[in-house]
Amino acid sequence: MPRGDSVSAVLERLGRSLLTHETGPVGETQVFEHVTILSAIDDVPIPARALVLGVGVHGPRGIVELLERISDAGASVLVVRGPAEIDAEVHARAMKGSVTVLSLVGGASWLHLAALLQPQSTDGDDRWAAVGTADTELDLFKIANSLSGLLDAPVTIEDRDSRILAFSADQARADEARKASVLGQQVPNLYQAHLTDLGIFHKLYTSARPLFVEPFMLDAQSRVAMRVSAGDELLGSIWAISEEPLSPVHEEAMMEAAHVAAIAMLRSRIAADAVHRMRLATVAALLQGGQPAWQASQKLNTPRAVTGGYVLAAGLTHDGPVPLTATAGLDHVANSLMMLLRGELPSTVCALLGDTIYGVVPTYADETVDLSAVRRLATGFVQRLGRDWQGLVIGIGAPVGHLTDLNRSRDDADLVLRVLRSSAGARTPSLRLATREDVYGRSLVLRLSDLLVGDAPGYTGPLDRLREYDRAHDAALLETLRCWLDNFGDISAASEDLHVHKNTLRYRLKRITEVTRVDLSDAEMRFELMLQFRLDS
Q1: I need a labelling partner for 437 at 20 to 30 A (CA). Which of 85, 274, 447, 453 fits?
Q2: CA angle at residue 474 from 469 to 476, to 5 degrees?
Q3: What is the pTM of this model?
Q4: Would you place residue 112 in the very low, low, confident or very high pLDDT band (cuts 50, 70, 90)?
């Protein structure tokens, strides 16, 4: 079968919950290799064998005109918003151009559909791209500058969370609220709160035309805002500083800019999702080691052949499942960590797998592996993270000379991360980054603990006898013994930590000897007790 995904496979996978076949050929031979977005006014190249998302295309005439364009380019599938108006002319044009026409159920997200439409490779090549996705940051900046020239006003384009995606070049005329937003690439919470309390966002997102916004706080200038949406899907907004409401002509210009911005934002999302999926697949394959790691290394943008590498494993110290909000944030942390490491360690790739961030740093045959750079960069990274990420710790796996052994470096990094996440690691809060060498003793204890999982010794040990005694007599002999061992038998230090008199501690130690039937003066016995405490923690 040709490379790509077939229309019949997509319909079987998604069913009528999202897509309906309206007209045109359908079957295993009807295949697409790319996903691209097109509107009725777009003039961008259409790749051959593409699935085209016809955003904003309505009516039989609009569908026919778009079919003529995409069939001439060799595209194979057109998706329009349902319910689709299919007449005889639409049917004839679809059959003539061998284009399958599908409809997307009303209310469904174009972005969600695009994320689901990853062509499934059948020849081992899992690379794919959303073609027709020009650099969206550049596109949005062009839109902002063009609209600014038409309105003679400073313009910003923002997403739904009021993050600044693009802005025009004339922000010197803007107020402090705008300047702070552009500088921080995010509308500050103070200003967002005012706009929310005044109901501005609600009015904006429910208005089909530009909304004039009076000054919403001291020293703020008035604004005109326009929502950016693709059909019924809200994507963000455009804001222009303006002393008065726009004229009808300028309103139409702003509405047209919002439409073009929506197309650019959708394209960006599809391209970003494709890159993200590709990075996840690459990191997962590298971590497997063996042949999958070698194949994945071919997708890294490296100046020379990669021979080996090492793995970083980062995560939060926690006792239970990581909250969904934290998991979403970890994805951003993974991207930030990758950008930082690439400054000195090119071709490093990072991705969030489960609740752990994995980074793979490639190495080469003609260089000596030195972990000092990654130590310095990663240490600075965790130190600069905000208060919400103070629990982030990073384990560094041992370098391996062959890509096929990367799974060993991953196992090493995982073990170090477990140590840092464990209760033993938590008692050393300053240790937020480590190699196996840094935590060798504790890693041995963890490995021994793994070996003992499920082991049923069939006898009661000294610590078990102390636990039973403490429960029966409401005592604290177990805590006393641990504190005394942690202080290497120092009566003064242990009694101070326990907040008891020295004689009280001596009495407890005598009682511990009687209950456990062990000789605390025996160095081997003290070591065994300390090891049991570590294994129980």
Answers
A1: 453
A2: 75
A3: 0.53
A4: low
